[in-house]
Amino acid sequence: MAVEIPYRRKLDFEYGKAEVLAPGIRRVIANNPSPFTFHGTGTYILGTGSVAVVDPGPDDEEHIDAILACLPDETVSHILVTHTHMDHSPGCRLLQAKTGAPTYAYGPHGAGKIEQGVQVEEGGDMDFYPDHLVTHSEIIEGDDWSVECVYTPGHTSNHLCFQLREQKALFTGDHVMGWSTSIISPPDGDMADYMLSLELLLERDDEIYWPTHGPCIDEPKAHVEAYIAHRLEREQQIVACIKSGTFKIREMVPLMYKDTPEFMYPAAARSVLAAMENLVKKGAVKGSDGVSMDSDYSLSSA
Predict the structure, then answer these.
(1) Model confidence at 302: pLDDT above 60
(2) Ramachandran area for residue 151 (φ above 0: left; ψ -120 to 50: alpha; else beta)
């Protein structure tokens, strides 16, 4: 039986309007809907008076103005960035120009891989460099809020989650979402890292997740467990494909993603590549030409 992920897709909102989600938590959703962003980028505002903004979103002045419009008598003191995909960090430049607030992030695009000597391809926000580099477990404090940084590489190598400690609310970026699974695209995306980052969340005491896209997740551990089971199921599907005589990733995708529209197959193929890379690391599978989209794959025991 296929793994059932308890997706949450119902979301009532109005573009450009701030919604109070809980004490000290507001959200403004950018008008950038797509198959990858759901309704759009949800920018969070933490605290009152002197506030932190999490993920200013795309390079969209209308969205930045909407954020500031709900803060007429307040000050932005911190800009927190989960990662450097184009729907998350480019808005920092516009927001900084209007507020002067510094940015906080793990590092520039590809930072986690560059540390390992791996050069990542362009495709992220290559112009972003944080004013403050932060690490796992670091605490950032404001006037009436404090945030713990949680390093969760996998979706990207510089991905961070942020826990609002006063509410044990984790802002999960694209690491865990309620409406969909995350795309893992090598070389910056890494399935082995992603699985470890999911396991890390199971050890934590977060009570609710607020992803950048879609509604909250109010049963976080059950959701993460389903995410892990789903990824392991994808690995089993790859092995089944190889056993049945399908050896190339592009030929596996239609068999593994039967309920996915064809226009999403290229993105699905990137996630299969990431899963294949993890299987090769485990020693379960080998490629005729290393780990690539064009390799023929076989079981290592074959």
Answers:
(1) no
(2) beta
Per residue in 127-137, pLDDT tens?
999 999 999 99
Taking phi over 0 as left and psi of -120 to 50 as alpha, with beta for the rest, 234 belongs to alpha
Confidence of residue 123 (pLDDT cuts 50, 70, 90): confident
Enumerate domains of the chain plus CATH numbers: 19-226 (3.60.15.10), 235-299 (1.10.10.10)
pLDDT tens figures, 141-184: 999 999 999 999 999 999 999 999 999 999 999 999 999 999 99
Phi-psi region of 98 (alpha: psi -120 to 50; beta: other; left: phi over 0): alpha
Dihedral-angle region of residue 277 (phi above 0 means left; psi in -120 to 50 means alpha; beta otherwise): alpha
What's the Rg (C-alpha) of the chain? 19
| Bridge pairing between strands 103-105 and 132-133 | parallel
The residue whose two tokens read 């930045």 is 64
Beta bridge partners of 171: 162, 210
Could you give the CA distance from residue 301 to residue 152 in angstroms, rounded to a whole number?
A: 32
> Going along the chain, which residue ranges are E strands?
19-22, 25-29, 42-46, 50-54, 75-80, 103-105, 132-133, 139-141, 146-151, 160-164, 169-173, 208-211, 285-287, 297-299
Write out pLDDT tens, residues 212-240: 999 999 999 999 999 999 999 999 999 99
